Amino acid sequence: SGYVYSVAISPDGQTLVSGSNDKTINIWNLATGNLIRTLSGHSGYVYSVAISPDGQTLVSGSNDKTIKIWRVSR
Q: Which pTM does this prediction carry?
């Protein structure tokens, strides 16, 4: 619902991850545009997101001065 500051596409090209100023990380199906899941845990804006080469781990950085590692499964 807020500004999007960062996006990353999974290595297999099926998933897009976005970080925004509503303090969430959204995981999207790239083919359909449907929201798969929303991750919450930062207390500040999410300025950076990255996806591991195997697509199973996300990393996010926030102005709450934290980096979070998220394990995701399909």
A: 0.91
